[in-house]
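Lecture 7 notes: from sequence to structure.

We start with a single chain of 206 residues. Read the sequence below before looking at the structure.
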Amino acid sequence: MNAPDFIYLASQSPRRRELLTQIGVAHELLLPTPDEDAESLEVVLEGDTPAVYVQRVTALKLIAARARLAGASGQNRPILCADTTVALGDSILGKPEDAEDAKRMLRALAGGTHRVFTAVAVAWGDKTAQACSESVVTFSAMSEDDIAAYVASGEPMGKAGAYGVQGRAAAFIARIEGSYSGIMGLPLFETAQALREVGFACNKTS
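Now the structure, written as tokens:
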């Protein structure tokens, strides 16, 4: 196979797009079609640990994306999928259902330490590569007014654990250990390695 000039990103996250651009990876979106039940892939199964969960969901997303590309007769290019979850102990904090759910999650995270897992999976032809990043985040204390104001901003919605490290929540993040880009939603070191494994070169100049 000739070296591909772009990849397909099977994610609606604008942050993942920004991060891929940061490391020089040209990409096009490969999003679920209206008839796909994408949310069902993110159901937590009994006995799931956070690391197992995020890697299983990412693998399922990749299977769905490969079928989507085949059905759409897309170009033969690598496909990248990713999933991020926030874990408080062994409890998985997904995306909040509403404002009250977001407040509940933030109260649980405030003044303590939690983990963020982001898994990536890449496929091209008969090659696949997978990786998982684990980071540790420590939040300062947050008052009820702090939490209410942050939730009112709308930023927590659609984000695992009800916060975005790159946004207003940064004012309450006292310490990070691990991958900042992984907490954002795409660990760049692991992503670049996975892309190289399937034959895609990052940081190309043309």
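The chain has a mean pLDDT of 93. Keep this in mind for problem set 3.
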